[in-house]
Specification:
The protein has helices at about 25-35, 50-60, 85-95, 110-115, 120-135, 145-155, 155-165, 185-195, 215-220, 245-255, 260-265, 270-280, 300-310, 335-345, 355-370, 375-390, 435-450, 500-525, and strands at about 5-10, 40-45, 70-75, 100-105, 140-145, 170-175, 200-205, 225-230, 295, 325, 395-405, 415-425, 425-435, 460-470, 480-485, 490-500. It is of the alpha/beta class. It has 3 domains: about 5-260, TIM Barrel, CATH 3.20.20; about 360-395 and about 460-525, 2-Layer Sandwich (Double Stranded RNA Binding Domain); about 395-450, Double Stranded RNA Binding Domain (2-Layer Sandwich). The protein has an 8-stranded parallel barrel with strand order 1-2-3-4-5-6-7-8, surrounded by 8 helices. A 3-stranded antiparallel sheet has the order 11-12-13. It has a 3-stranded antiparallel sheet with strand order 14-15-16. Strand 7 (about 200-205), helix 9 (about 215-220) and strand 8 form a beta-alpha-beta unit. About 45% of the residues are buried.
Length: about 525
């Protein structure tokens, strides 16, 4: 089994993404996660370029990593300077990392127009920078920036640059598709040309401007690359870098390469979500391998097939990357979906029970009205229990009123809700204020019921989404509200639909409370 080294540059290249910014503490926490994943190299940043990266390199000296080496990143010396007088080179040494990665120009266009120097001086910059750093004992990598564009423009000079790096003692030479415009067959041919003319270990660094960064990286591995560089979730400048979250399972599961262990790969989904969380970005549901929808099945034919053999519609075992299989409920559902969800919810029902058809018909009718149960499985479980006749009733709705009042132009509006609920024949009338009408309504419901059901104290509202269903009707449009609630043990989604946003919110809130009470009651009965 061929071994491939994984080089992560989320903390440097990834943080250059337009909408990503990590604090120093974020970077330390991510480094720990990457180390646990089994990444071999973690590029921490560019020392000397900003105070944040300098602080990171100072703090990372005092943490212990089991698998990864930390790399400092920088460039070759500047034209017409000595390495001793070059501040960038000196900052790289002061970072005191095990590994130093420097990039240099391998495209003659950049040599002349970006560096404003000549080709011979650029070769000296590469040679002198690498030789100087190697004298200080670190493992040194050379990123041949724009190599594939450079090779296509002037193959003789591009090869001269990487051969100069090899002669200067570089431990690795990484060929970079910096503009992200190369095709897989170009990557393959050029990489093989270089591989055949050099003895140093080679790596690949691709950007995603043509949506080919993952494919190009894998093609390079096929052509002899022993190291792959990329970022978690494909973060990076412009369209991003090669996505390691896809590359790692592709290498291990599809290509049989040794990159991380089976146990480490099971943390892949968790690492992906963790980095998104610290970047303050929503997780991409449809991301291959780790997305919430990556192994979600909606069509009845699909569900029927995977119940017989998951290989019919799943290319890997979801658990191998820390994900799970999900069965969705929608108007495309068949009886198989209903039976699968019943089993998932612990509901004992026979496949021949006519109530299954009733549930399916009711589901399709409700979705035609605008209800959606893909993100509201709490509401769907209640619907099932109701159809099967075993849903418990804990209270009866009598009415509610919501008032929003703005007393002065420069003051925030005041929202107040009053609810009337009957519990065991007792009419409970309560009022509460909130930061908005839905918050006030939620607080009033909780206030009315918690004295009867103390377990509701631990229920919190985590997310609230509003969707306009028929935009052409303007303010008369039907509204769908999706709510995510949870306690110390679980989270659940509920849904409401109405032309009135408060009424839709009320429906979703009531379903959330009923789901909690029904679940609590059943757990108490079985324990």
């Amino acid at each position: 089994m061929r071994a491939i080294k994984i080089y992560d540059t989320t903390l440097r290249d990834g943080s250059q993404s337009e909408d990503v910014s990590f604090t120093v503490e974020d970077k330390i926490r991510i480094a720990h996660k990457l180390d646990a994943l089994g990444v071999h190299y973690i590029e921490g940043g560019w020392p000397g370029s900003n105070p944040k990266d300098m602080d990171f390199f100072e703090k990372v000296k005092h943490i212990t990593l089991k698998n990864a080496k930390v790399a400092a990143f920088g460039c070759t010396r500047y034209p017409e300077k000595t390495v001793e007088a070059d501040a960038n080179i000196q900052h790289l040494l002061k970072a005191e990392t095990e590994v130093i990665t420097i990039f240099g120009k391998s495209w003659d266009l950049h040599v002349h127009q970006a560096l404003s120097t000549n080709q011979d001086e650029n070769l000296r910059m590469v040679s002198e920078s690498l030789s100087y750093l190697k004298k200080h004992g670190q493992e040194v990598l050379f990123d041949a920036e724009h190599f594939f564009d450079g090779y296509k423009s002037n193959p003789e000079y591009a090869l001269k640059v990487v051969k100069e790096a090899e002669s200067a003692g570089a431990d690795w030479i990484v060929l970079c598709d910096t503009n992200g415009g190369s095709m897989p067959w170009e990557i393959s041919k050029i990489f093989q040309d270089v591989k055949n003319s050099m003895n140093v270990k080679l790596g690949i660094h691709c950007h995603n401007d043509s949506e080919l960064a993952v494919a190009n990286s894998l093609q390079a591995v096929q052509s002899g690359a022993e190291q792959v560089q990329g970022t978690v979730n494909g973060y990076g400048e412009r369209c991003g870098n090669a996505n390691l979250v896809s590359i790692i399972p592709n290498l291990k599961l599809k290509m049989g390469m040794d990159c991380v262990t089976d146990a480490q790969m099971k943390s892949l989904k968790g690492v992906s979500s963790f980095v998104d969380e610290l970047a303050n970005k929503g997780h991409w549901n449809h991301q291959p391998y780790v997305g919430h929808s990556a192994f979600a099945h909606k069509g009845g034919i699909h569900v029927s097939a995977i119940q017989k053999n998951r290989l019919t519609y799943e290319h890997i075992d979801p658990e191998s990357v820390g994900n799970r299989q999900r069965i969705l409920i929608s108007d495309l559902s068949g009886k198989s979906n209903i039976l699968f969800k019943a089993k998932e919810f612990g509901i004992d029902v026979n496949g021949g029970d006519p109530k299954i058809r009733k549930i399916l018909d009711n589901l399709k009718s409700l979705e035609n009205l605008g209800y959606q149960y893909e993100g509201a499985e709490g509401s769907f479980e209640l619907l099932m229990h109701d159809a099967l006749g075993d849903k418990e009733t804990f209270f009866d709705f009598v009415g509610f009123r919501v008032i929003v009042e703005k007393r002065q132009e420069d003051e925030e509006p005041i929202s107040e809700a009053t609810v009337k609920i009957r519990v065991n024949g007792v009419l409970e009338v309560t009022a509460a204020e909130g930061t908005g009408p839905v918050d006030a309504l939620n607080k009033a419901i909780q206030k009315a019921l918690v004295k009867f059901y103390p377990e509701l104290e631990e229920v919190n509202l985590f997310d609230y989404k509003v969707r306009i269903l028929d935009e052409k009707k303007g303010t008369r449009s039907k509204i769908r509200v999706l709510i995510e609630s949870g306690d110390h043990h679980a989270k659940w989604g509920t849904v409401g639909v109405s032309e009135n946003i408060i009424e839709a919110s009320w429906q979703a809130l009531i379903d959330s409370i009923e789901y909690k009470l029904n679940t609590f009651s059943k757990n108490k009965t079985t324990s």
